[in-house]
Write a structure and sequence with these properties.
CATH class of the largest domain in chain A: Alpha Beta
Oligomer: homodimer
Number of strands of chain A: 11
Distance between the termini of chain A: 52 Å
Strand content of chain A: 5-15%
Pfam families (chains A, B): DctP
Strand order of the largest sheet of chain A: 7-6-8-5-9-11
Helix content of chain A: 40-55%
Protein name (chains A, B): TRAP transporter substrate-binding protein
CATH topology of the largest domain in chain A: D-Maltodextrin-Binding Protein, domain 2
Keywords (chains A, B): Signal
Number of domains of chain A: 2
Order of helices and strands of chain A: HEHEHHEHHEEEHEHEHEEHHEHH
Largest sheet of chain A: 6 strands, mixed
InterPro entries (chains A, B): DctP_fam, SBP_TakP-like, TRAP_DctP_sf
Number of helices of chain A: 13
CATH architecture of the largest domain in chain A: 3-Layer(aba) Sandwich
Organism (chains A, B): Marinomonas phaeophyticola
CATH superfamily of the largest domain in chain A: Bacterial extracellular solute-binding protein, family 7
Structural class of chain A: alpha/beta
Chain lengths: 361, 361
């Protein structure tokens, strides 16, 4: 890899060169971008995506684009990325769009939605179904650009101390489940709370909470929840969690066109790569987990519980759509796209997997 | 985008610059690569992937990496890509690895396998499960590098004039189905044939063949098969068809490191992007097809037919593994990876989709 030690290597010969090779002047300048991430340092998978991105960008640019990353240990504002990138304190951020719903409600819809699209469907929506354009509509007024930043795949419904057999079992259930899904459960009588990740294990072990959701086997194994909660429920609330790269528009506009393209390409590839890495680690970690704790039981919520969750979810969505035309535009676009893409999901991968099961020993 | 009209813009000032900025000399040279594709010109989706790749590479390199693409109309050797890239007649190719199985049998395993991995599982195998390393083992002796080149998603089992209700219905069935899947069907009494794409519609219409497989709704709609065959079977034989970028190793080694990284990144992203595009077009084309011809019926082969196909497939795989240690190494690696990844597929997307169905109206 080429590297450039100074920002203007050619400064000494600038006069000679200007007349016939202005572009090569820009080609030797080093551009430095500062990024803040929501995650603590060494956070697996989530924290690897922005580093993968920065490495690609630096290598592809021959060292002309250098991106440094500050973890939350340093900037102390894990949920302040939106503001720090907006103000220009950082040029970029790595986080998740739904963290800003308290500030800009319509940012909620660009991470994942309960009962919504699965990962390949959602990428189809972003890139071919109008999703990117709608995300731009939401972020543009703040001088921000937002891009997919890595997908976890379908998240698990969480770890439970007791089985959920009916809606009654949700009454008063203390569960760590943030965001929109928490609102859905609250409507059904549960008591959703948010607890910092470092305290989750103890809270579940001491029955301060009865249940929690985190991510899935790709990250849950490291948290050890399988040692203290026997039931692991399949997902309903985050079928395609997509993280986010945020870029300050002024910082982006200052880059020459080739580096802009290197940056957007690196972000896009890093997001797909995180999806594949998550898929991989979910499988391998699940196998490890099962061999360590063979009694972990995978459960799916009963039909009437799921139906009630879906109904509560739908009512909340209708409230959002009624209150804001842009929310309605986004939700209608997602609902329409899901309908079309799901037909294909069902006759392709799903029909294939179902047909294999009929002949498995 | 910057563009460079001459290969050595800085030649005139070379002496002045050499002492302290050698890298910027290389940074102004334009590298040109010639690529041959299997597809005819304007072939949708498959032909868009290499063009998407070339455009990214040119833009990210500020015009220093230019890739021109010859379609099969021009080079006249759609299935000669391997040889033309090996000899250096072309620097790169876009094709599919299983086309070379007659020449190098172990290339068969890097496109997709009957009853094998679905797309995200297979990407996991390529990038985290040893797939890329095994592919290198197969291609390296020929001075070739091979990379994923775009995924179609799960391919459909094909268009049939008559329903397949039992193994008897396969006896003497004339079906256009190339490759390994054709061998599987031949073992069960069918008569697989290969027919050039331009003649497929007429062959099916005039009952020269009883059935054919092509790709899936993403490409089948344009062929019009839905107008002349009522049954559309779900897939078993190509669950994750991955196309291929081939690169001549000497051509690759001549590129400076930053352009090498730009090239590999562009190929990798173009392959994921083709997967998402195929997913998108499969859904939208299926909806169009159904509105035009509402009587098209989606069918899945009966259990005993699928079980016999799987058994025949397994026997063929065992023959391949017994005859060649590298084939055995690849097939064992795939089987092992599939087992681990499939557990995750089943408790994530599949469990989610199944649970939604229980509450759908």
């Amino acid at each position: 890899m080429m590297s450039f030690k100074t920002t203007t290597l050619l400064a000494a010969t600038a006069v000679t060169l200007t007349a016939f090779s202005m572009p090569s002047m820009a080609a030797d300048k080093v551009y430095r971008l500062k990024m803040a991430e929501t995650w603590a340092s060494n956070f697996p998978i989530f924290g690897e995506a922005p580093r993968n991105m920065a490495k690609m960008a630096e290598e592809m640019s021959g060292g002309r684009l250098k991106i440094t990353i500050d973890s939350s240990n340093k900037h102390k504002a894990p949920l302040g990325i939106f503001d720090m990138v907006r103000s220009g304190q950082y040029d970029m951020g790595h986080s998740a769009s739904y963290y800003w719903k308290g500030k800009v409600p319509n940012t909620l819809y660009f991470t994942t939605m309960p009962f919504g699209m699965i990962t390949p469907e959602q990428y189809g929506w972003f890139y071919h179904g109008g999703g990117m354009e709608l995300m731009e509509k939401v972020y543009q007024p703040f001088g921000l650009m937002s891009f997919p930043g890595g997908n976890t795949g379908n998240q698990m419904g969480g770890w439970f101390q007791k089985e959920i057999n009916s809606l009654d079992d949700l009454q008063g259930l203390k569960m760590r489940i943030p965001g929109f899904a928490g609102e859905v459960l609250a409507k059904l009588g549960a008591k959703p709370t948010n607890i910092a990740s470092g305290e989750l294990y103890t809270a579940l072990e001491r029955n301060t909470i009865d249940a929690l959701e985190w991510v899935g086997p790709s990250l849950d194994l490291r948290m050890g929840f399988h040692k203290i909660a026997p039931y692991y429920y399949t997902g309903w609330h985050e079928p395609a969690t997509e993280l986010q790269f945020l870029v300050n528009k002024r910082s982006f506009d200052r880059l020459p066109e080739d580096l802009q393209r290197i940056l957007t390409t690196s972000m896009k590839l890093a997001s797909y790569e995180m999806y594949v890495q998550s898929y991989h680690e979910s499988g391998t970690n699940w196998v490890t987990m099962k061999s360590e704790y063979p009694n972990v039981q995978v459960k799916t919520f009963p039909k009437d519980v799921l139906a009630a969750m879906k109904k509560a979810n739908q009512e909340l969505l209708e409230e959002k759509a009624a209150a804001d035309p842009l929310a309605k535009e986004i939700l209608d676009s997602q609902a329409e796209y899901l309908k079309t893409a799901r037909v294909w999901t069902n006759i392709s991968d799903r029909a294939y997997l179902d047909s294999l099961e009929t002949i498995s020993e």
